[in-house]
Amino acid sequence: MSLGIKNRQDQKRVIVIGAKGHIGQAAMTDLGEHEVIMASRRGGGGDARHLRVDITDVDSVSTLFQDVIEHHGPFDAVISAVGHCEYADFESMTNDQWATTIASKLVGQMNVVREGLKYIREGGSFTLISGILNVKPMPKGIADATTSGAIDTFVKCVAHELPRGIRINAVNPTVIESAWEDYRDMMPGYQPVADKLVGKAFRRCVDSFITGQVIFVDA
Amino acid sequence: MSLGIKNRQDQKRVIVIGAKGHIGQAAMTDLGEHEVIMASRRGGGGDARHLRVDITDVDSVSTLFQDVIEHHGPFDAVISAVGHCEYADFESMTNDQWATTIASKLVGQMNVVREGLKYIREGGSFTLISGILNVKPMPKGIADATTSGAIDTFVKCVAHELPRGIRINAVNPTVIESAWEDYRDMMPGYQPVADKLVGKAFRRCVDSFITGQVIFVDA
């Protein structure tokens, strides 16, 4: 039985930036009914559905959106599943480590929204990634936590001023199962969540009407 | 009558960075019993109690603390009442405006803590400034809001790892009365608060035992 209510429009064209990473892969677990264009730092080596982008470079971000429109057509949603963070104790974290983290996780993701706004369809959506450390801090996680707090705040505040019915949200997950081997030694007492739950969160941001929200995915 | 309970140690040496600004002046309204060393971008023109500092320059910040110790002695508390923000609609805010705001309000204040940690006395405290726009967003305030959210998060998370009993908090005020003339046109529907209430918040951070907290001063 079904209620016969379909809570989405027709198929959307969704750009997933950081498609090769754990979170990017998780984000794609529930996008099956949409047309997905992948983007990553290395690109897909000639695959027309997997483009190259460096989010710390505004021109590269702009080129990505132009290329998608030229080769595939207008797009409805952008998922950012990227943002490099450096991990160190606060007292030993260097200027460069702070600068790298801020340029990628914070400014890089804002670049995606700033440039994407010029190209995205009316009623489109942006979904950014933050991470649980801003509400569950851990040793060596201060740069991740600080930039995650900035992204969560950015999304909540900027949503009010996006034009043309465009929405923006953030997914704030704890560590996911597929990445647990890499993080388990750093994160005693944290419970990984299934990748598909993170996929559900991204999917809800793409297909629902919510905006200015931070979707926590935690156990 | 008095309870005879004195909730503070003896006189402390407190460095107030941004002492010439509205918030810096407000911060000093309730520090009377302490010895205050002022610092600002222009300095006090030879006044030994008013030094020069540029928080966006790590060396300048380090020099400030060394100079205080050399000329005045060890210090117990640092109040940061600085952080330049650019104001513009999100769609028109430039790379430079974002970079300037992040370098000052976010990285600049973190520089104060990073460098100050090397010099501050055991049991000392840092108090940073954020601002109400991260919880009460307004048009043109996105860079202020985003960096305030980052500062609030930073303070809450980094408090866990400061050594030697050192504390850190943030004061998050709405606009204050002495600055209302400058901001009133930009902030319809906001109620300014008395400068001395902001002074009380800074004083409490200096003299209480709280750490990892954001003290909102709002009406």
TrEMBL record, chains A, B:
It holds the Pfam family adh_short_C2. Gene3D superfamilies: NAD(P)-binding Rossmann-like Domain. The keyword Glycoprotein does not apply. The keyword Nucleotidyltransferase does not apply. InterPro entries: NAD(P)-bd_dom_sf, SDR_DHRS6-like, SDR_fam. One of its GO terms (molecular function) is oxidoreductase activity. Keywords: Oxidoreductase. PANTHER family: DIHYDROANTICAPSIN 7-DEHYDROGENASE (PTHR43477). Belongs to the short-chain dehydrogenases/reductases (SDR) family. This is Short-chain dehydrogenase. The lineage of its organism: Bacteria, Pseudomonadati, Pseudomonadota, Betaproteobacteria, Burkholderiales.
